[in-house]
Automatic annotation (TrEMBL), chains A, B:
KW Cytoplasm (keyword) present: no
Residue span(s) of domain HTH arsR-type: 12-107
InterPro entries, A to Z: ArsR-like_HTH, HTH_ArsR_DNA-bd_dom, HTH_MetalResp_TranReg, WH-like_DNA-bd_sf, WH_DNA-bd_sf
Protein name: ArsR family transcriptional regulator
GO molecular function: DNA binding; DNA-binding transcription factor activity
Keywords, ordered alphabetically: DNA-binding, Transcription, Transcription regulation
Lineage, uppermost ranks: Bacteria, Bacillati, Bacillota, Bacilli, Bacillales
Species whose genome carries this gene: Sinobaca qinghaiensis
NCBIfam families: HTH_metalloreg (NF033788)
Amino acid sequence: MKSIDFHTGSTAEAMDFTSYEIKFKALADNIRLQIMYELNQKPSICVCDLTTLVNLPQSKLSYHLKILLDAELIEKEKIGTWNYYRLNKKEVKNILSEELCCIFYPSS
Amino acid sequence: MKSIDFHTGSTAEAMDFTSYEIKFKALADNIRLQIMYELNQKPSICVCDLTTLVNLPQSKLSYHLKILLDAELIEKEKIGTWNYYRLNKKEVKNILSEELCCIFYPSS
DNA sequence: CTTTTATATCAATTTTTTTTGATATATAAA
DNA sequence: TTTATATATCAAAAAAAATTGATATAAAAG
């Protein structure tokens, strides 16, 4: 993050919002919001179940899960052959309003 | 919004998160986060001043302002030849966490 | 009027993201 | 082992978004 120019009140150079950009990009897609919503219904869901829940071909779902994972909005746990995904509650809470958390994140 | 299938707990068909998608898309860009940040520093800013604040060619700035405007994250007011933009506080508060509002939206 | 200033829009191009189908990998089951 | 299942990754194609420079519009100034 660049130093702030107190004379003009503006930043001397652009500030870096990259980490927010990545998270908002991850949320900026209907399919991925769908996935977040489904993950909000249960503690965790394996990929095989998600494919039917969101009705997507496996490679496509995998692609979108990776984007959410890279943005740290969800987490992955491998159990045997299955990969279980769940919301990263902390991160979601950090950026979304409480109101939105009711949709994409459990209230408690 | 589709009816919910209570048997499986899943939605019969995809739910529609389009309005959220549009807002997150608008936030999913470093330049536009920059603009939001600058708009957070003052009650409102005219385009001519924004061009120097975010250091962008006029047509490019105009393009990004339109995306934020269409997402209803900012508002426009025309005064003479000048167009003044300001944050849409209500909408920003509706979707972003209080913590983020400190960056992109005034605390009060 | 004519000119200047502030801003939006448009069309062409470039860049980024998404989709698709194929293939790779790893675990489990037979 | 061999085979089946779950999932990730890759490369090519398609689609969407961003950039650029030119032009349009509208208000203000001269």
